[in-house]
Structure formats: structure tokens, C-alpha cells
Amino acid sequence: MRIWRAAIGAAAMGWTAGAAAQSTLPPRPVAVTVQADRPVGTLPPVWRFFGADEPNYATMKDGRKLLVELGKLKSGEVFFRAHNLLSTGDGTPAFKWGSTNAYTETKDGKPVYDWTIVDGIIDTYLARGVRPYLQIGFMPEAMSSAPAGTPYQHSWRPGFDYKLIATGWTYPPKSYETWAELVYRWTQHNVERYGRAEVERWYFEVWNEPNIDFYWQGSPEEFYRLHDFAIDAVRRALPTAKVGGPDVAGAGGAFMDGFLKHVSSGKNYATGATGTPTDFLSFHAKGQPSFVDGHVRMGIATHLKEVDKGFVKATAIPSLAVKPVVIGESDPEGCAACPGRSNDYRNGTMYSSYTAASFARIWDLAARRRVNLDGVLSWSFEFEDQPWFAGYRQLSTNGVDLPVLNVFRLFAKLGTERLTATSDAQVPLDTVVAEGVRGAADIGTLATRTADGKVAVLLWHYHDDDLPGPDAAIRLSVAGLKRGGGKVGRATLWRIDGDHANAFAEWKRLGSVQSPDQDLYAKLEAASRLQPETLTVTAGAKGTTVLDVRLARQGVALVMLDK
User: Is the separation of the CB atoms in 554 and 546 below 8 Å?
Assistant: First the structure.
């Protein structure tokens, strides 16, 4: 606890000094141009996926509260992925752990199925407009082939060696038929409880990152067998289920090559047929921040390179190339529960600006590779009853939203028709993928037309280094509005920066209190919310509409214009 509070205090001091230095620098002029009458394809709402190691947090007070906010983003179309939905235990959460006790055995080896805890988790999702991206795992204790004496539940905690999580739940089953029967009965139960039409909308995948021994102690071929038996069991219970995988770490290397070959043309271990039903493909991509010369330096290039490698693999086999792709975990680094100075970015606007800049490039890479991108899943939720702003990768702290959650609220305001938009300060895609943002800041944009005909313009001001820098003085020119140049109905601005939609900044202004009373709590909630501002709009040359936006370094903004 003392270490966390010291780190939080250091982060607060760094933010204050940075903000003060930033305010004294002259702004950088930036020209952003949008052609509202020139669509350039679609912008799929891939941001609507989230997940966490700890499934039981979903049913706790702050977990339930956060799920409400996620469900509001796009009700019925938000998906949540969680580990440990089949792990043995009483449902008590811990760091990187959870359990449901879905499968146990009597003393004489007879199976006992109990859906009480897992039903409670899924009920909680659905009641709040969120659906399962259902991960089938991990191995119940009674089924695990772990050597005698291997502990089943790990005792990992923040700061421990990550490899300590690999205990008895990571092993193949003693019987693949018993494993398949569990999956079959679970799917059958879900159809009976929630209805066929509901469960048809879910995603079903097997395990997590089976290409690394943190999560899978078997061979690749043993995983293919595990996968085949599980997918066959799901499809026997629900022939129309949406099934896929394998949610590998990174692009998956040789493991992913083998998996793709197996599901497309190999012999199915469960049925003997050729191939395995595959409705979507999934892999993971992470960045790599570091702590350099007293500040955090993000690793967006590492993140995007892995995304691009994954896209190349996903389209390598013709029969699979058109399948929807989900990046099943996509984050600035690899461990939501891990502390460390390189993770000091998480509470403030570095995380939010990184999210905007990285998603924009992922959309672009998908278009370049002609990938049918269906989802980009942010592995960040919340950690119940932890210190305020403890530095975990999460969307809220003690029920109060962090700045990063507001980026997803801005994404939710975008339309799906992408418009031509350019910024003279946006770092080119190839440069960001190769080098990150290490020179001039990346002041970028993308624009869409919404379903009701408005023009939504997203703006971000990102740099890999968490250091002060000048604001961006953005001159936004929009051509092709249906009402022509001059005055439009209205223009609305939402901002996320040191002074807007930022509970972390407010918490520090209030004295970094670890036990705020109800009045301080209400102030933190108010400070976390996006607040609309009205912009002054003027007529520009050749029928354009012109407006000015001041955007702080590591800030994100959205401008909405009427038709």
C-alpha cells in the first residue's frame, strides 16, 4: 500500500509540473480539413469490446456500475470477455483470478455441474446491455492433468513474477470427452436459460493465449484437440453458434500458422472431418512502455507492428481471409494488474490519447490489409476495493470513471460512414508503425457522418513521451456541409484533457484523498464526465465552415456539426 501511494504521489507531482510548464509554451498551429461530401468507406464500431482476468468483479458494486456505463455505449452490441469462467473455486476474486465452480466431481468420480455463479455473471452482463464474448476456460480442478502436488489456484500478487500464475488450471484435461461434455452441457444450459436467439449473438472461443506457457502447459496439438472438442460440443448444443479463436498472444508465430492450417484443412480431433468450424479469427496485440529519464515513454509502434502481423496471418489462407477478425486483447502493455513506473500513464490523459491514436491506426491498418475487422478488445475493466487511482490498467477506480473511458464515449458518437479528413500535423501511418511518435507530436483526425446526418470529427494530440509540450491551436475547416458555408445550426465540442473529463486531475486538486466522503465522491464523479461546449462557427473560403479548437498535449476532442 505504501509503495502504491508513493507512486501515486510521484505521478501527481509530475502531472502538476508538466501542466504548469505546458501553459507557458506558445501553441502549435495545426490545419485540419474535412470533406463532408467525400466518403472514404466505413468505420466499423470495433471499440465495443472489453475484458478482464477477474470475472467475479462483474457482480460486485463497482463492477456492476461500470457495466452500466459500458452497456450505454452501444446497448446490446457491447461484448465482454473474461478468463476463469470454468475455474474451480467459490467465486472469490483475486488479482488475475476468478472462479465459478461450474464442474466438480463426487468422491466416486461422478460429474457435478453447477451454473449458479457463472449464471450470475452472465445475468449481470445482459441486464446492463452487455453480451458475452464467451471464453471457454480454464480447466476445472477435477479435470486437470497437472502432476500430483501441483497447486491449482495461484497465489500471484502485484510485483510477483508473472510466471507464478501457471498452476493446475493451465493443464490439458485428463479426458477430452469429459471436457466436451462440460462444454456441451454449459452451452445447452445457456440456450435454455437465455434463448437461442440471444446465445446466437455471442462469440465462443476456447482458452487464452495457448501459445505461451503462462496459460497452456500442453503442446500445440493438444490445444488443437482441446479446441476441436469444445467447438464441436458448442455446435452440437447450438448449431448456429458463432465460434472461433484462438486468441493467441501476439500474432501467434508458428503456433498460429499451425492452428490456421489445422482448422482449414487438418483432421478434426472430435469429428474426424476435415477442418474445424471457424466464424472468426482472434489474436492479441500489446504495446511496450518504458520509464526513461524520469518519465513514461509509450511503445505504440510495438503494439501496431503486432496488429499488422496478426492481420497478415489472418488473411494468409484464402478460405479464412474473409472471416471477421477480433483483436481479443489490444492494450498499451501486457498486464492490467501489474504495477511499475512504466505503467504510470494509466490514470491520466496519456492513456486516453494513446487509445485514440492507436485505434485510428488500427482502423487504417485493417483497411490497408483488407481485413474484415469486427472488434478491438480493450483488456481493462476495474479492480474492486483497491486504493484510489492505484495505477492499474482499468476504466474506473472505486466506481469513478477514468479519462480513458471517455474516449470510448467519444467513439460511440462517431458514425460508420468515414469521411475524407486530413491534418497537417498527423504523423504518417508507416512512421507510427515503424518508429512510434518520438519527434513532433501526432495531432491527428478522423471524421464520420452519423446516422442522423451530422459530421463528427475526432481529434487527438498524442506523443509517446509523457512530457510537457505546446497546445495545438487547431483550425478546423469543413467543406461540403449540406447547408453550405457560414453559420450552421450549431457545433458542439467535448474534450478530455487536464481540465476536462478528468477525475484524476480533480482528485489531486482535492488533495489525493484515499477515503473521500460522499461530497468529495460526488465532485469526482462530476469531474469525470464529458461536458459539451458550444463552438463559434464562421464562414471560410469556398463555402467552408471554420472553427477553432485548442487541444492540450495528450488531449482528445470530438467536434459535432449539424448537417
Answer: no
